[in-house]
Amino acid sequence: MSETETRLITTIDFEAPGKQCGFVRLPHSVHRSAYGWLPLPIVCVKGGEGPTALLMSGTHGDEYEGQVALCRLAASLEAKQIQGRVIIFPMANFSAAKAGLRTSPIDDLNLNRVYPGDAAGSPTLAIADYVETVLMALADYSLDLHSGGSSLMYLPMSIISTGESEEETLFRRRLGSVFGAPYALSMPGSHAAGNSSGAALRQGVVAMGTEVGGSGTVTHAYARICEDGVRRVLAELAILREDIPAAPETATRILTAPDFSFFCYASEDGLFDPAVELGDTVAPGDLAGWIYTPETPWRAPAEVHFEQGGLVVCKRIPGRTERGDCLFHLGIDV
After folding, report:
1. CATH number of 265-333
2. What is the mean pLDDT of residues 176-202?
3. Rg (CA), the chain
4. pLDDT of residue 111
5. pTM higher than 0.85 for the full model?
6. Phi, psi of 277 (to 5 degrees)
7. Residues spanned by CATH 2.40.50.100 within the chain?
8. What gap in Å lies between CA 191 and CA 171, rounded to an integer?
9. Domain spanning 9-256, CATH class
10. I need a surface site. Which of 111, 275, 276, 309 has the fewest CB within 10 A?
11. Which part of the chain has CATH 3.40.630.10?
C-alpha cells in the first residue's frame, strides 16, 4: 500500500446525512485535456446511526448486471429508508466500464488484480488505493458485483469467502443464502490475490460478491436477482428498512470450488465445441468438449476432459480459444 496520499478527490461528504450524488475526480492530463479528470460516479445515502455498506460494480467494465442493479439502487434509495450508510460506486474502474472492457484502456490493468494499488501510480492503481484506503476504510461490509463479462457466462450466484473462524464462515454463508441467488460459491483462496476481497480483509470489512450472468450483455432477470439480493442483504444487516424483496421459494445451494482442478482449461488453440452446458453435472474424466483447428482441418480435434466432477457453474462464450483459456468451472456441494 502506498504511503502517498490519494490524489482522488470528491465533493461528497460521507458524514453528512441525506442523499448525495456526485463524482470522485481522478486527475488525468492528456493531449485533449491538460487539466482534466476522470469522473467516477458515486452516491452516498446516510440515514441514522448504523453500519456502512460499500456497493461496487464495474470493477470489470464488460460485466453489466451489477452496474444495472446499482443504477437502479442509486436512483431509488432514499435516506429515510436507511439506518446507517450506503456508498454506491457503480463504475469502479471507470475507463474500463466506459469502454466495455475487462481492463482499463488507459493502462491495460485489471482492477481486481492490483489491490492494494498505488496512490502515485497509473489510474487503475490509484483507484485501487482509493477504494482500499478511503472507501473500504469507511465500510463495515462490501458487496462487489461481478458477472462473467465478455468471455464467460455464469449461473447466478453469490460469492462468499471463508472467515477467520467457523462463526464468521457461517455468517458469510448466511449472507450468501439471504442474497437469494440460486447458488452461492466459495472460490479457491488464491483467486483472491490482489482483489477487493483482500482489500476488505486488510480493512476489517466483511466482503461478499457475485458472479451473475455475463456473455458481454445484460440478462434482465439476472440484473433483478442482483438488485433484489443486495436489498435483502442490506435488510439482513439492519441497514435497509423498507422495500425489501421476499425471499425466493427455493433455497440457495451452497457450493465450493476447493482448488483450480475444478476449472477446465483449453489444451490447444482453435475452435471449442462444448460437450456440456451450464447447469449440467459431470464426473471426473467426463468429456468437456473438442477443440478443432480450421487451419489444419484434416486433423482430429483435441478432446478436453474434466479433472474433477461437479456442477457446471461457468462456461466460456467465444468459440475461438487459446491454450490456457478457461472453458468451464465446477462447483461441488459444501
Report:
1. 2.40.50.100
2. 87
3. 20
4. 98
5. yes
6. -130, 170
7. 265-333
8. 21
9. alpha beta
10. 309
11. 9-256
